[in-house]
Amino acid sequence: MILRRLAPAVQPLLSVAGAFVVAGVVVWACGGSPLEALSALLQGSCGSSTGLLRTLSKATPLLLSGLAVAVALRAGLFNIGAEGQLILGALAAAWAGHAFTGLPAWVHIPICLAAGVVVGAVWAAIPGALRAWRGSHEVIVTIMLNYLAIQLAHFLVNGAMKDPVSMAPATSMVEPSARLWAAADGSNFSAGFGLALLAAVGVAVLLRHTALGFEIRAVGLGADAARVAGVNVGRTMISAMAISGGLAGLAGAIEVLGVHRRYLDAFSPGYGFDSIAVALLGGGNPVGVTLSSLLFGGLSAGATHMEAWTHVPRQIAGIVQGVVIFSAGARYLKGRRR
Amino acid sequence: MSGPELAGFLLPLGVSALRQATPLVLAGLGGICSERVGIVNIALEGMMLAGAFSGLVAGRLAGPLVGVTVAVTVGMLVGLTHLWATRKLRLNHIVSGVAINLLALHSTTFLLRRLFNQADPPVEARIQTMLPTALFTGLALALVVVFHLLLYYTPLGLRVRAVGESEADTRMAGIDTARVKMMGLAASGVLAGLAGAYLSLAQVGRFSDDMVSGRGFIALAAVVCGRWTPLGMAAAALAFGAFDALQFQLQGSVALPGELLRSIPYIATVVAAMALRPRPPADLGRQEE
Predict the structure, then answer these.
(1) Beta bridge partners of B126
(2) Residue B271: its pLDDT value, please?
(3) Quick one: which of B210, B280, B249, B229 has its CA closest to B25?
(4) Which one-letter DSSP state was computed for residue A173?
């Protein structure tokens, strides 16, 4: 019984182990010591309380955008656009954070988070609607909307929304009432991690215990069968994409309110793209996504430390991610075929 | 504007447009080769990056022509990896493309640190003698015609189109579809690798992190806007190249923001995907059962 419950975790663990072996070989082939690199990686990600908090802070946007990709995936849609949704969500939250003044924190913070969620959701609903109404492939549209979001944010943050007193391409700092609580030890850990965990619970409830969640899963397993069974496939696709974009927008809003305190041009190191690895490794379910976001968060937190101590470039963490997508992707689709 | 002034504005603009469009045309042909045999290819970006990097490394060691050869070979290997992942591992085409892009990005930046920047004094990833860009531009335009003829006027082209529409039916007709797909993906990688070599060996003369910076996706956009045909794709790529060149020329001079000009390919593609109803090959993205 216990073994049966653990079985779904075996293949992801194997694919992660395989990816680490590949990375070790790469480090070794480039004249480094894989064991030293690994120990520095572990030291940086969970060797101290600051390291642990840094792992959790790096995991926060990965968890939320990983959930975003996962929700779309369950509806059979590839949301490659989490990056763009995250960027515009962050921009909206930064705007709400300094445009409203004199509000108490318990009003201001929810307003900012909601701004991020709504903008992300609208941006993602566009490819959802085009897919539902016109049959346009959501992958092409989300890729294009990523680049559009990047250009739009770049344009706004160098012009209309630019902080007038700063040289940097950034918005003004958000009001103190819009800031999430954050640890003062330089780890960037904030209350956002708790919000991300709540979102994971919310997604789990949505998928398992609501009619919409059931419809999303039905469409993902077979749109034609779902349509015959009376599901409004188009509306379900649009809803799934909007929820997906809302989660990605929330990820951006939390980065602004908890870490940067303003929107800084090009602040995202590609969370929206990493989230695809997170969602696939997590098998598209909230518990799996939470665990894999912690893994990749730790990898990212530890890689900087490893680079400083062993001179192994931190990009090795990205190589691990790529290999994981290859092996975990094969697994995810095999699971779906059954 | 007087006549000579206009010519003085338009001529460099045209030359610059061709320079910007060349990698898009080459990679776009690569996209057509892959998608016409039914394999979705969002990995063009990664193939170009792998070609740009390996071409530069080999070019430094043994001259630019060897560099181009290596870039093309590496591109082909990446293309065949994409085929292997989608056919043998039965990976979703998008998943494989995302993985290839991530691996190409991170392994080239990793190797750039390892091979160049960490030495003392730091070595720049630069090449001494660059190849003329006109060589690539001429080749790209010639290849557009060649691929148009190949696709529509030869038995091989008919097979390629048939595989893209329905692999199962084509196999029933006694055609070795696996071979056709292999040729398509090999050609796709070769062309994308060539586009990468153009960037590092002819246009810029050096390699920097993520230097393809989305051109692979713009090439894919040109494929969609051009409805999966070589001539249509080339027209879209030339238009995108012209907007790119215009943005360079107008930089700082007019109130027209560069972001808007840079956004045109993306807007055009969304509109094309929405309004033109471009019809992709019917079997595009079908998973092997």
Answers:
(1) B206
(2) 85
(3) B229
(4) P
* Closest in B114, B214, B262 to A30, CB measured: B114
Q: What is the pLDDT of residues B130-147, one digit of tens each?
A: 899 999 999 999 999 999
Asked if residue B251 lies in contact with residue B131, where contact means CB atoms within 8 angstroms, the answer is no
Phi, psi values for residue A108, rounded to 5°: -65, -45
Q: Does B44 touch chain A (CB under 8 A)?
A: no
Predicted model pTM = 0.91
Query: Is the Cβ of A147 closer than 8 Å to some Cβ of chain B?
Result: yes
Burial class (CB in 10 A: 0-12, 13-18, 19+), B103: buried
**Range B14-117+124-276 classified under CATH 1.10.3470:** yes
Respond yes or no on whether ipTM tops 0.85: yes
Q: For residue A21, what are the β-bridge partners?
A: none
Whether residue B262 and residue A151 make contact (CB cut-off 8 A), yes or no, is yes
B270–A143: do the CB atoms touch at under 8 Å? no
Residue A317 to residue A315: CA distance in whole angstroms: 5
Q: What pLDDT score does A338 carry?
A: 34
Nearest CA of chain B to the CA of A151: how many Å?
5
Q: What is the pLDDT of residues A214-230, one digit of tens each?
A: 999 999 999 999 999 99
Task: Determine the distance in angstroms separating the CA of B116 from the nearest CA of chain A, rounded to an integer.
Answer: 12
CB contact residues (below 8 A), chain B span 112-141, against chain A:
113-114, 118
